[in-house]
Structure of L-selectin-like:
Amino acid sequence: MLVNGPKSWREAQSYCRQSYTELVSVRNQEENCQIQKLIPAGEVSYMGLFKDAFVWSDNSTSSFRNWDSGQPDGSGDCVVHLRRSRLWDDQDCSNTKPFFCYDRTVVRQILRLKVESDQNVNDPDLTATILQEIKQKMIYQGLSVHAYLQWKQQANGDVFQREEKTRKK
């Protein structure tokens, strides 16, 4: 989603986090080309890459980079798309530019787990810990840090149900 109201990089990030999800991260050349097509001729726009050894603002692990010749040159800590070349440039974060946000998308996915434990696996503290560990592993695999995970509770309030043991005849 291209937002034409120019903002500094930090203002753009804040706006995206409040109104959408995050400034856009570019994972490959195809995504880069799709974004470039939306930028008006002669314009530049912010994306979610910033200098802290240039990491994505959503903590995604994409290593895709598309720097213009001689870039990054240390002139700034934030990255912009250059419309004319489809390449990237580092610029001062206080400059105001249009920017791209991730559009909010809701993906509902069910993950089934089999848990073996001597503890009460439906204890709220334990279920919270398990959910946090799952989220951390998914973030490591590229899930946005802003993703929301929750347990699906049964009618009785439990998250996990006991597996019935089959008897041998």
Summary: The mean pLDDT is 84.
